[in-house]
Design goal:
Helix content: 25-40%
Order of helices and strands: HEHEEHEHEHEHH
Oligomer: single chain
Low-confidence stretches: none
Mean pLDDT: 93
Shape: globular
Strand order of the largest sheet: 3-2-1-4-5-6
Largest sheet: 6 strands, parallel
Structural class: alpha/beta
Number of helices: 7
Strand content: 5-15%
């Protein structure tokens, strides 16, 4: 991200930098890994989702999340929640976790799914397959395209806009990524026919 920036101007991106060229390393304790392992051991393989984002322009619509989880009854969805105010997606298992505990969930899941966020960078650091749902706000070429990431990108005119304030362009870009596209990508990442 290029500085300076403000809420009014939004982010501008340094296109010479590629996050995929600087994958971090994370080292978890046995206790942190146990957070995810205990769920996997008790309930079986799971897909970790995080529908909520503090930044409205990075959110795939909640009705789409509901539809995805409702229609993919073949999968167990575990939802990483942050607080009592996060909407729990029906039929998903909510798990409240700190950042490091959420990394423990990552290490045990089959695939991690959400809009652009720091947790996608953590998934890359841990070598966890992820599905990143990119609207028109952030620069996928700078912040995404990790070797373990399947990116769903819907860039419309003006993308990436980098706006912090609620943006119709970003909302339309996210809404243009269908539940079927995400479900098909999920099947592909899981190696389903």
């Amino acid at each position: 991200i290029q500085y300076p920036f403000s809420v009014e101007t939004g982010w501008r991106f340094n296109r010479a930098f590629k996050a995929r060229d600087h994958i971090a390393r994370l080292y978890l304790t046995e206790e942190e890994r146990a957070v995810g392992e205990s769920i996997r051991d008790e309930y079986g393989p799971f897909v970790l989702i995080e529908p909520w984002s503090a930044h409205v322009n990075l959110r795939w619509p909640l009705p789409y999340w509901r539809e995805l989880v409702r229609t993919r009854t073949d999968l167990l969805f575990v939802q990483h929640t942050h607080s009592k105010t996060d909407e729990v997606i029906p039929f998903a298992m909510p798990v409240s976790a700190s950042f490091r505990q959420a990394c423990g969930l990552l290490t045990a899941c089959q695939v991690y799914m959400r809009g652009e966020s720091g947790m996608l960078h953590a998934a890359a650091a841990l070598g966890v397959p992820s599905i990143a749902i990119w609207g028109g706000c952030m620069d996928w070429d700078v912040l995404g395209d990790y070797p373990t990431e399947a990116g769903l990108l819907n860039y419309t005119a003006g993308s990436p806009c980098g706006k912090w304030l609620p943006c119709e362009h970003c909302e339309e870009s996210m809404a243009g990524i269908s539940v079927q596209q995400v479900s098909d990508t999920l099947s592909g990442v899981l190696g389903e026919p």
